[in-house]
Design a protein that fits this description.
Low-confidence stretches: none
Mean pLDDT: 82
Strand content: under 5%
Structural class: mainly alpha
Order of helices and strands: HHHHH
Distance between the termini: 57 Å
Radius of gyration: 24 Å
Largest sheet: none
Number of strands: 0
């Protein structure tokens, strides 16, 4: 038996096993869940960026050579953690709605809405 056969059969088995994460008939798969989480995370992050930011001009401490409207302390790490918490809550709501079958009930079948 050729050596490559030893690798082909486990490779096919692994490919079929991994395909269930990418091709799903219903429900939230790993890839679908991750993509939704990341998109929502970035949307929430960009919405949170201006919250609580004071410019150098507002603070009265303008650093030479910088834009006066530049933020003094953007607190990106804290906003990132809050963004992750908010996004996790939103993702759990998305998961519950998607797994309940509510979305599938109103999706078009056979290419028509009626």
């Amino acid at each position: 038996m050729p050596r490559w056969v030893q690798y082909v059969l486990p490779g096919i088995a692994a490919t079929l096993w991994l395909s269930r994460f990418f091709i799903r008939d219903e429900g939230v798969g790993v890839v679908n869940g991750l993509v939704v989480f990341l998109i929502v995370w970035w949307l929430v992050f960009f919405m949170m960026l201006p919250i609580g930011v004071r410019s150098q001009e507002e603070a009265g401490d303008i650093v030479a050579g910088t834009e006066p409207g530049a933020p003094m302390a953007p607190n990106l790490l804290r906003k990132g953690w809050w963004c992750t918490i908010v996004t996790s809550g939103l993702w759990i709501i998305y998961y519950i709605i998607n797994e309940s079958g509510l979305v599938a009930r109103y999706m078009p079948t056979d290419g028509s809405w009626g």
